[in-house]
Amino acid sequence: MTLDQLFYVIELSQQRTLADTANVLHISQSGLSKAVSQLEDELGVKIFERNRYGTELTPEGKELIPFIQEVIDNTLKFKDYATNLGTKSKKEVFRVAFANTILRPFLQEYLKMQASGIDFRMDLSQASSAKVVERVAHHEIDLGFAAINDYNHQYIKKLEFKPVHEGHLRLFTSKQNKILNADYIDTAQIRKQRFVLFDDPYNDAVFRHLQFLCGPLDVILRTSDPWTIVSSIKRLNAVTLARDWQALFSVYSPLVELPQLSIGHLVNDQFELGWVYDDEVMLPSVLKELMRRVTDRLKKT
């Protein structure tokens, strides 16, 4: 039994005729028929019934199709996994995670380094600041970029934190929101809003403080996807809490185009944004260089 034979069975079950199947697979009809017959003989099961109208699955064939498809899928997954292992053994692989959004300067410097001939592989991901810190602590990633405030400094005590910039948690709204007409944003104005929140435990600490001042607030959506957040703000006249500095440098630009209001007079909205890594594990030189380039670019803007 070969993988090709299994592919032939799946394709024949869909095309229903030897001629159409052979044409799709770019093999001869006789070769296709022989391969399928050999598989049936090996298994001791008749998979197809052939008649003048075409080829139909037998009842036994219909039972076998899901298992055949599963074998094919698992075989291909195994081959992909093995190929990736081979790739990893040939070049260095660096794991980096960003809080909420990948920063545009990081992408620009990464592309520059790759274009210059520095050969490495990057496993790049996005998560909440809390998750980034947790993954660094558990050595699941080599380097993280997170936003830290007074509520969560305790979580990075055993890690190295290299600040790059300060940012503030702002209230982002639609351009039609009446809160923009207010001379002063107070708790009464906040209570009227519908919130769509980023899935970020560090932001949640600020939101809980806001609810302590305002009472229960109306949360209609929680997600990690910025496109969904922005769409909900625009179409539902909702608001969100997001860090101004990250929005400015995000690879996803529509968020920074929305009006934003300060809530610093109500809660501590300050964050420090920077690199998080385990100082006991030596960072590879390529990552250090990438971190230096991105930091320089961010501090100049």
From TrEMBL:
Keywords, alphabetical: DNA-binding, Transcription, Transcription regulation
Source domain of life: Bacteria
GO terms of molecular function: DNA binding; DNA-binding transcription factor activity
Transmembrane segments: none
One Gene Ontology CC term in the entry: cytosol
Sequence ranges assigned to domain HTH lysR-type in this UniProt record: 1-58
Chain segments annotated as coiled-coil in the UniProt record: none
Entry's family note: Belongs to the LysR transcriptional regulatory family.
PANTHER family cross-referenced by the UniProt entry: HTH-TYPE TRANSCRIPTIONAL REGULATOR YBHD (PTHR30419), NITROGEN ASSIMILATION TRANSCRIPTIONAL ACTIVATOR-RELATED (PTHR30419:SF8)
The name this protein goes by in its record: Fhu operon transcription regulator
Organism this protein belongs to: Liquorilactobacillus uvarum DSM 19971
